[in-house]
Specification:
Elements (H helix, E strand, L loop, with lengths): L9 E8 L2 E7 L10 H8 L9 E6 L15 E7 L4 E2 L3 H15 L3 E6 L2 E7 L5 E4 L28 E4 L3 E6 L8 H9 L9 E9 L2 E8 L3 E3 L3 H13 L6 E6 L2 E8 L2 E6 L2 E8 L1 H5 L3
Parallel strand pairs: 2-3, 4-6, 10-11, 12-14
Antiparallel strand pairs: 1-2, 1-17, 3-4, 4-5, 6-7, 7-8, 8-16, 9-10, 11-12, 12-13, 14-15, 15-16
Amino acid sequence: MNRDDPNPGLPFVKMHGAGNDFVVIDSRGRGSAVVTPALARALGDRNRGVGFDQLAEIRPPSGQGPEGFAGAADFTLDFWNADGSRAGACGNATRCVSDLVMREMDRAEITLRTERGLLRAVRGADGRVSVNMGPPQLDWDEIPLARAEDTLHLPLAGDPVAVGMGNPHCVFFVADAEAEDVAGRGPLIERDPLFPQRTNVEFASLIAPDRLRMRVWERGAGITLACGSGACATAVAAHLRGLTGRRVGLELDGGTLEIDWREDGVWMTGPTALVFEGRLSAAFLDGVR
């Protein structure tokens, strides 16, 4: 993307990782961030806007960071949901934008800043991009839950696991993920009072000792073809439940993600794709309220 383009309108890029799709806006050449809740909602409309699961805004590496943040980063990344709410983490968007910036900088490794702090992304010899999503949050108040509970066995029907990956996740292990009513159960669990910030909801079934089938309902977005942070949370939950080792592949509706829970954090690897570049018209932007 050309950050110094003087033409009217707002440039953007459409990308996806395993079918999890994003609009990317680069604000590094501007005086401040440009995304607002209203703009995120307008852009997220798949009929009147562009449509996405999440919106990612690239910002300069310094300033406007989380309180107490320290360390060097190549850029900062903010996330928005299609309903205009903020997302604390988005693993596939992180991989996609990292791929974009690595190509721009002609590098195979970068460091970025999100609400979680510093994250490291690398491109492998096979072209796939990996990102360290950091250690999982396993204490009830970090996830967060509304009250102290055993996060490995939540007091909800289905005996789910709660895991935080910079955003909250509620993971159900079921006999057959294909048969789950994700559209029916997902929104009810997302807004359960146990989750004061709402939650993402994953339904996973074991198909091999190192393989899971997962479907997901994302808070603020609904059913999506993939969810990177959800895949990380599900892999962590599966290991804690004794179902898998620390390295596992997850088959999602849009593709496969490989998760490796290492000592330094939860690493996620998968494909990225740049779909098209575009420009939001001045008329569209003037109509955003």
